[in-house]
Amino acid sequence: MDPFKNMGDWKRNMDNFFGDSFWNEFEGVLKPPLPQVNLYQKEKEIVCIVNLPGVSNLKNIDIFVHHATLEIRGSIDMKEAEGQVVREEILHGNFERKIDLPFPVRREKVDASYQRGLLVIRLHRLMKNDDKKTRLEIVDMED
Fold this sequence. Notes:
By secondary structure, this protein is mainly β. It has two helices and nine strands, in the order ααβββββββββ. The model has no long low-confidence stretch (mean pLDDT 82). Residues 25-142 form the SHSP domain.
């Protein structure tokens, strides 16, 4: 038996009782942050793999690097999502995600590529102080 089967009905009842903004305080607890991220640290490099299914225009995804922070903004669209939701496990919509990195990185030595729904960002350790913010271009590996 699925204990979360009736969660949608329960949430709608709570929305009616407490108001729609009640759930904003629990956003990160009830559903994982969007998009999902895996971060791998090596001695002088960080590899960030971001789950971004169905992105058709990479120019709509913004990636910024600033010192020890990676920021990703954009939107995951699901054009086929029509009708009443019966089960919703794939997160979608607008997102903005700031990720604290384990060490400062070089903004001029960052590579980003996208293939089969995964955005792979390679960042290299900064050996000196650099406090400018840079927007990255993403290479579409499916062309």
